[in-house]
Each structure stands twice: as structure tokens, then as C-alpha cells.
Amino acid sequence: MPLRDHFHPPLDEETSWEGLHGQWPAMMVIDLARRLPSRYVAAPRVHHGAAVEIDVATYEKDEIAERAPARSNGGGAATAVWSPPEPTLAVETDLPAIDEYEVRVYDTKRGRRLVAAVEIVSPANKDRPEHRRSFAAKCAALLQNQVSVAIVDIVTTRRANLYGELLEVIGQSDPFLAPTAPPLYAVACREACKEDVWRLEAWTHELVLGKPLPTLPLWLAADLAVPLELEESYQEACRILRIV
């Protein structure tokens, strides 16, 4: 069963795209569990319209310190609590809360360091300029911290290309996007250092309705990658959800 259009009739009248977007990361994790070396672990992450928190380095257990009351300085007088000055800017904001449908891969031998992320694009990620910028900025931050990023976009209701938005953020371009950026695509990206020069490397594929999905390289280290079998995990997610 090839790639389907989950956003238009007749399929969207029978099932919701949210079901596929929620199930697909779990199928990717199951598939990756058979392929990842023992030191690596994959986990799904699904946040619908929730505030995004980018894990770009190590996993840490945050310790929240309670505010203690003013204490004596030894001479009987309480130490005054410092009060910052008034802000130089205070304006109303509406920071975008973006969808997250993703898989994250961690290296357990390096303090559970995030090494790879698979981002499945949702309609909300593409609908407004601020949402597109937030998505692109998140991917750029991951790449800057040597986290490989795969982006998979099967959204047929909006034509924006978030891979192109990512390249704009980092000041680069790709002939793959010319003369017209394809609305459906899958791409794997990483920052690689060769001869003391950091380069962005990308593996791009245009997606076509009715055609199989590609296999992407998911980079875990500079010299180690595993196959991200998009077709296999997609078909398994559709099978479980009874999407025909």
C-alpha cells in the first residue's frame, strides 16, 4: 500500500490524520529498536499544540530549588532580597505553540545525549509564518548541537516547505528546492566536520502520492548511521489503525 492522502476525501472522511501522526512515531521506535546498537535508545514524543522544549544536549533531571526566606547574616539583621529593576521592554506576545510528532534517539553511554530526531510535519507546523519559523529554528538548533534531523512531510493541505525554511535560517540553499519546492518530501540532515570545516549534509527525497516512501540515513555519530525505513513503519501504522 503506497503513500495515501490523509487530508482530503475520501480518506479524511473515514479516519483522522492525527491518528496516523500519533501512531507513526511509535512504529518508527519499534523498527529502530531492532536496528540500533545497544547503547542507543529511541523514544516517541507527541505534543499537540504544546509548548516546545528542545533537548539539544544531555538529559538532566532538573532540580527545582525552593525559595528560602530571608536569613540572618550572622549579625542579627536579615539579608535583603535583591529586586531587579523594571524591564526595559514589556509588550504583549503570542508565542506560537507548535505541534510535535517526533522520534528521539539517545546515546545512553554519553549521559543520555540526544543524537538524532525525526520530525513528522503537521498542518499546524506549516500554516503560519511564525509556526514555520519556530519549526525551522528548532531544527537549526538541533543541527547546531550535532543532532541529526530527519523531516518527513506528507501534509497535502499546505504547500510550504519547512526544509526550505530551515535552509533560510542557516543561510543555505539546495537545488532540490528549485525551481519549485515540492510540498511533500523527506529529508535527512546532519552537520559533519571534514578537513576542519563544518558542512551541512542532506539526503532529500520528493514524496509522491501512490508511491512508496524512501529509506533515510539516521546518523547516530560521525561514522555511524542506521536506516530509517519510512515505508515499513508507515504501512505498519496504517495497518494497526485500519487505514486502507
Describe the structure.
By secondary structure, this protein is of the alpha+beta class. It has one domain (11-56, 96-240). Helix content is 25%, strand content 26%. The protein is built from six helices and eight strands; from the N terminus they run H-H-E-E-E-H-H-E-H-E-E-E-E-H. The chain has helices spanning 11-14, 17-33, 123-127, 129-144, 162-170, 230-240; strands spanning 40-47, 100-107, 113-120, 148-153, 185-194, 197-206, 215-221, 224-229. A six-stranded mixed β-sheet has the order 1-2-3-4-5-6, sandwiched between helices. Strands 7-8 form a two-stranded antiparallel sheet. Helix 2 packs across helix 6 (230-240) and helix 4 (129-144) packs across helix 5 (162-170). It is globular and about 75 Å long. Residues 50-72 have low confidence and may be disordered.
What fraction, in percent, of the residue positions are helical? 25-40%
Backbone shape: globular
How many strands appear in the DSSP assignment? 8
Please mark out the parts with pLDDT under 50 across 5 or more consecutive residues, or reply none. Answer: 50-72
Overall tally of structural domains = 1
Distance between the termini: 8 Å
Structural class: alpha+beta
Q: Please give the order of strands in the largest beta sheet.
A: 1-2-3-4-5-6
Total of DSSP H or I helical runs spanning 4+ residues: 6
Main sheet summary: 6 strands, mixed
What percentage of the residues does DSSP assign to strands (E)?
A: 25-35%
The radius of gyration computed from the alpha-carbon positions, rounded to a whole number of angstroms, is 21 Å
Provide mean pLDDT, rounded. 88
What string, H for helix and E for strand, traces the elements in order?
HHEEEHHEHEEEEH
